[in-house]
């Protein structure tokens, strides 16, 4: 029996076909070959076309089929992972009314801040576990005020994964996990957050039917099945945001376990059995995929918007003709500390861990007679790793003290420089595994279908490497210099 996992990312779509019995990947594909565009109509804005997501997903599935490694008719269920916090609004015919306002868009910060003040800090943190901040509900409030002609046509509010599930099945559902990431879920009463709905004046009918993460979210439409070479009626049995899903892919399901990613954005995601909101909402608390009313499983999420995207831009500026492995080799040839250069990588919208400030990206302490491209490339990777340390210190202040981080052997964790700096500046060892978000989505589909037990997750994982802190490498002075520059920027 095979399972199909779809990972709707910011830069591309990934698909994985997994054997349910072994939990091993049979085939995979990525589409498109170049990074998906982000529409930026104004500074701080970021949008993508939901219909383009859907077209790319179809092409990606067909590309996986073209591998010839499996029979598409053997696929028994579909799981979906997706970029979190995006806003998709549709009309009565299920058509997207506008581009999705995606996770790194900053325009809604004032709307969330006003809601936090009006609802009250105590009430927000107790029931929502967050400030409404720059999340999905606040983005819809922006649409309501600035695009009333769009707002009046809205039939349903969806997270990106809900939209893709609807395109596959024609069925509209959502989950508590999805609504929690949009700040639309009340953890106290275990229902849609009516205080948020009332404050913004949203119709309750906007919210699709709420179901468990692991449940039947509809069967594949016959017309779509015919186009994709799949069996009609096979169910979508799992939908989750990319970071809870990444944790699932790494078998991070129980309190105290921690996962990390370093893609377009960087994330450290720990599971807790306590509702521990950050009073400043620098870290955020969402319902993990296995959270229930009877058993708290809260995902404590540290997000760094400017992670892989900063590394990508540094490569484009300093070494446009080199591959990423070649860039990593250049960076590795420079001594720790990059001969004094520091990089603040915060140029991808408002940073939650910096209380939603837009600090921007900066190269600091440049000596034009001394520093070359290699210094800047290494300083970029160091600056991203230092950002993780900054966020982990916040996480530690909230009572979570990870002794191990699990991550996929992918993206920036493919760089020996980044991984070395991450491990040594945080003091936390990292285990790297052969998994990704699309594989996690397929495994989630298996749990939803009932052919994989949650307690049986992990048997398909292959440990690729373990990186331990090196007692002879001291990054603390370099981090403290970087921290001084960041504090100066925050004080402006």
User: What share of the residues does DSSP label as strand, in percent?
Assistant: 15-25%
Summed up, the domain count is 2
Topology, number of strands: 22
**Tally of alpha and pi helices:** 16
The chain-level mean pLDDT equals: 96
Distance between the termini: 58 Å
What can you tell me about this protein's structure?
With 492 residues, the chain is an alpha/beta fold. The chain folds into two domains: 249 residues, 2-Layer Sandwich (Nucleotidyltransferase, domain 5); 160 residues, 2-Layer Sandwich (Nucleotidyltransferase, domain 5), CATH 3.30.420. The chain has a seven-stranded mixed sheet. β1 and β2 form a beta hairpin. It starts with a strand and ends with a helix.
Task: Describe the structure concisely for a colleague.
The protein is 35% helix and 21% strand.
Keywords:
Nucleotidyltransferase, domain 5; 2 domains; 35% helix; alpha/beta; seven-stranded mixed β-sheet; five-stranded mixed β-sheet; 492 residues
Topology:
Blueprint: E1 2-8, E2 13-19, E3 24-31, E4 47-48, H1 50-65, E5 75-82, E6 88-90, E7 100-101, H2 109-119, H3 121-128, H4 136-146, H5 148-151, E8 156-158, H6 160-169, E9 173-175, H7 176-181, E10 185-186, E11 191-192, H8 194-200, E12 209-211, H9 222-228, E13 236-241, H10 242-249, E14 258-262, E15 266-272, E16 284-287, E17 298-304, H11 308-318, H12 324-332, E18 342-346, E19 360-364, H13 373-397, E20 405-408, H14 416-426, E21 430-433, H15 437-449, E22 463-467, H16 476-491
Parallel strand pairs: 1-5, 5-13, 9-12, 14-20, 20-21
Antiparallel strand pairs: 1-2, 2-3, 4-7, 6-8, 10-11, 14-15, 15-17, 16-17, 18-19, 21-22
């Amino acid at each position: 029996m095979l399972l199909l996992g779809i990972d709707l990312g910011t830069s591309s779509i990934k698909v994985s076909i997994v054997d349910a019995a072994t939990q091993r990947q049979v085939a995979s594909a990525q589409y498109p070959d170049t990074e998906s565009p982000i529409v930026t109509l104004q500074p701080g804005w970021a949008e993508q076309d939901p219909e383009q997501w859907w077209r790319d997903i179809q092409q990606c599935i067909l590309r996986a089929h073209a591998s010839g490694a499996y029979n598409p008719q053997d696929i028994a269920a579909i799981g979906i992972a997706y970029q979190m916090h995006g806003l998709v609004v549709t009309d009565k015919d299920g058509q997207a009314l506008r581009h999705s306002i995606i996770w790194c868009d900053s325009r809604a910060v004032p709307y969330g801040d006003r809601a936090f003040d009006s609802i009250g800090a105590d009430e927000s943190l107790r029931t929502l576990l967050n400030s409404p901040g720059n999340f999905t509900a606040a983005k819809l409030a922006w649409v309501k005020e600035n695009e009333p002609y769009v707002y009046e046509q809205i039939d349903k509010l969806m997270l990106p994964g809900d939209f893709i599930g609807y395109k596959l099945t024609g069925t509209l559902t959502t989950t508590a996990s999805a609504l929690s990431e949009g700040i639309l879920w009340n953890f106290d009463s275990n229902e849609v957050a009516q205080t948020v709905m009332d404050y913004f004046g949203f119709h309750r009918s906007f919210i699709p039917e709420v179901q468990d993460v692991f449940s039947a979210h509809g069967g594949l439409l016959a017309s779509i099945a015919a186009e994709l070479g799949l069996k009609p009626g096979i169910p979508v049995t799992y939908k989750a945001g990319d970071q809870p899903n990444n944790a699932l892919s790494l078998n991070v399901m129980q309190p105290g376990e921690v996962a990390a990613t370093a893609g377009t954005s960087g994330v450290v995601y720990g599971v807790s059995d306590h509702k521990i909101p950050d009073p400043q909402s620098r870290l955020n608390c969402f319902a993990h995929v296995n959270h229930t009313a009877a058993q708290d499983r809260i995902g404590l999420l540290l997000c760094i918007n400017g992670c892989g995207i900063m590394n990508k831009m540094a490569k484009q500026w300093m070494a446009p003709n080199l591959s990423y492995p070649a860039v990593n080799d250049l960076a590795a040839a420079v001594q720790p500390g990059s001969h004094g250069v520091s990089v603040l990588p915060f140029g991808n919208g408002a940073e939650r861990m910096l209380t939603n400030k837009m600090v921007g990206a900066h190269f600091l302490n440049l000596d034009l007679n001394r520093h070359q491209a290699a210094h800047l490339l290494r300083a970029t990777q160091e600056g991203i790793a230092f950002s993780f340390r900054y966020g982990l210190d916040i996480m530690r202040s909230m009572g979570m003290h990870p002794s191990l981080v699990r991550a996929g052997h992918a993206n920036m964790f493919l760089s020996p420089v980044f991984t070395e700096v991450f491990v040594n500046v945080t003091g936390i060892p990292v285990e790297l595994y052969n998994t990704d978000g699309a594989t996690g989505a397929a495994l989630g589909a298996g749990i939803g279908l009932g052919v994989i037990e949650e307690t049986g997750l992990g048997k398909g994982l292959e440990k690729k490497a373990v990186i331990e802190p090196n007692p002879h490498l001291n990054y603390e002075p370099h981090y403290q210099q970087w921290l001084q520059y960041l504090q100066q920027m925050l004080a402006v």
